[in-house]
User: Which sequence fits this backbone?
């Protein structure tokens, strides 16, 4: 039996930027990739619980960009904030950042949203 995934819509939080993003994990691309430095961030766990995706600690081990349904970051504005969008990975920043840093040109509204809490994550029905 194959795993059933669900879609969520993630919008920018107060003072946040970008989005909205629709996240829909698929077989082989179901990682809710958490790079916040302290295990699985509560927002990443919430998205995984709603979508059926697999929470993954990106600091403890690595996965290919093509396996990531969404990357959850906590970057104030230079490195991680641009790395995942540059690779075409949907990126959710828990901080209310705007495009900045050396990779700012890759941070577009269709791949990046910031200032996100659980309140900005909405389950979409089919």
Assistant:
């Amino acid at each position: 039996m194959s795993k059933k995934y669900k879609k969520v819509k993630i919008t920018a939080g107060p003072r946040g930027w970008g989005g909205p993003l629709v996240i829909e994990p698929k077989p082989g691309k179901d990682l809710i990739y958490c790079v916040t430095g302290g295990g699985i961030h509560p927002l990443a766990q919430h998205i995984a619980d709603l979508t059926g995706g697999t929470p993954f600690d990106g600091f403890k081990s690595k996965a290919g960009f093509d396996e990531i349904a969404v990357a959850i970051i906590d970057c104030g504005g230079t490195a991680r904030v641009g790395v995942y969008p540059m690779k075409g990975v949907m990126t959710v920043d828990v901080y209310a950042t705007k495009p900045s840093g050396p990779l700012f040109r890759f941070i577009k509204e269709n791949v990046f949203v910031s200032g996100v809490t659980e309140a900005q994550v909405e389950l979409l029905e089919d």
